[in-house]
Q: What sequence folds into this?
């Protein structure tokens, strides 16, 4: 793609980084899945691209910052969106931050997630690689959490759903992701729940109950398996 | 004026100019409708930033199928979140009594269109004084929550990019 270079290659597609319409941008392209019938494949891809875009817009309406969308192109199976230049993925930030700072960040993560769920947005792939911290002053400095804005990205597996069940699963996915990448996962997750409670007060109890159910099911599965 | 690069697939430039005190608006509109003049006249009150026009035009020029007749009506249509063609064209187009207007053309040379406009060209920065942010927020259904986090340009272009499959 002209003006772009390959940035990431994932299981579902490729991400290019470059300049689009004069702005720093990423182009997120989804692979053709050869084992599917071509018509079905393009239909499913189109639906995925739509739901990714829909969640990004829905977050914006709810006051949650997400990348700006520049072009959604079904033919090229690509979304062109804003690239956050002065950003670090939360995973890398946590790796070098103090426990005190991590705890504050976790509270923020929980708060944004609570707000997302309160607006019926299920992220579907909550990992610390799918969250960015963007420097608000346009500098490449990530030492002060107060200068950083937390932004969720990668809504490729998201959907709109108000049920507590799906929200509980979302939390469970996050817990598992934390456990697999961070040594202090349980402290982080406890703070996430604290933040979550602040922004999704009315839904918290039910979601937490669902989360525990899903967690218990997960334990049983790993014990049997 | 602003010259903007579009998608590499399009391989064309977009020219955006802002005019004050245009005297022959009704004449220009007639010429556009009869196909004698290839450009799009946009109401600057609803344009926050030239980038808004770039995103709408880029969408029109990369689309496989258009919804409206010409590339220029398509740009106007894309600017609106409405799926209703007439409503969109009325909302972002101009009326005979408009004196400030944005002129959008596609291609390297817009001198032919330029020579037809009887008005004063000003810097696009002057949009800041003409645009009506309240009207923009209303047109794009941007609530107070959203205004606090995203910049208004980001909100606007994201809606333009998704207008064909999301009801805003
Ligand atoms: N808008 C953006 N601004 C800055 N960096 C981004 C942006 N979007 C994605 N990235 C970077 O690219 C990585 C992958 O992006 P994303 O998660 O959207 O795609 P993905 O296909 O799910 O990739 P993966 O399988 O690696 O998760 C992110 O972890 C982040 O480092
Ligand atoms: Mg990802």
A:
């Amino acid at each position: 793609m002209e003006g772009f270079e390959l940035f990431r290659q994932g299981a579902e597609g490729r991400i290019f980084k470059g300049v689009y319409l004069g702005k720093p941008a990423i182009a997120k392209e989804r692979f053709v899945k050869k084992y599917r019938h071509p018509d079905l494949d393009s239909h499913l891809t189109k639906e995925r691209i739509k739901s990714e875009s829909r969640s990004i817009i829905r977050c914006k309406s709810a006051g949650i910052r997400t990348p700006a969308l520049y072009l959604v192109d079904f033919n090229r199976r690509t979304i062109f969106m804003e690239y956050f230049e002065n950003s670090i993925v939360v995973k890398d930030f946590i790796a070098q931050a103090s426990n005190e700072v991590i705890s504050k960040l976790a509270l923020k993560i929980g708060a944004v997630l609570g707000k997302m769920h309160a607006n019926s947005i299920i992220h579907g792939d909550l990992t610390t690689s799918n969250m960015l911290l963007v420097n608000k002053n346009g500098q490449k400095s990530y030492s002060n959490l107060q200068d950083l804005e937390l932004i969720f990205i990668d809504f490729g597996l998201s959907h709109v759903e108000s049920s507590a069940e799906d929200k509980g699963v979302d939390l469970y996915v996050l817990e598992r992701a934390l456990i697999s990448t961070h040594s202090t996962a349980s402290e982080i997750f406890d703070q996430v729940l604290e933040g979550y409670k602040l922004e999704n007060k009315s839904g918290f109890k039910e979601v937490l109950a669902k989360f525990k159910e899903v967690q218990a099911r997960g334990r049983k599965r790993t014990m049997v398996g | 004026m602003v010259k903007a690069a579009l998608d590499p697939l399009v391989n064309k430039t977009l020219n955006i100019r802002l005019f004050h005190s245009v005297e022959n608006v009704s004449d220009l509109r007639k010429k556009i409708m009869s196909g004698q003049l290839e450009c799009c006249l946009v109401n600057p009150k609803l344009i926050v930033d030239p980038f808004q026009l770039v995103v709408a035009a880029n969408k029109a020029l990369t689309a496989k199928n258009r919804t409206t007749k010409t590339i220029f009506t398509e740009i106007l249509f894309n600017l609106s979140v409405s799926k209703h063609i007439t409503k969109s064209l009325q909302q972002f187009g101009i009326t005979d009594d408009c004196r400030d207007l944005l002129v959008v053309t596609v291609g390297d040379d817009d001198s032919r269109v330029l020579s037809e406009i009887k008005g004063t060209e000003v810097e696009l920065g002057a949009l800041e004084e003409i645009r009506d942010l309240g009207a923009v927020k209303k047109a794009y259904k941007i609530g107070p929550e959203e205004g606090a986090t995203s910049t208004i340009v980001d909100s606007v272009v994201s809606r333009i990019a998704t207008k064909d499959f999301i009801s805003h």
Remarks:
- Chain B touches chain A through 29 residues (CB under 8 Å).
- Chain B has a mean pLDDT of 95.
- The CA atoms of residues 5 and 160 of chain B lie 18 Å apart.
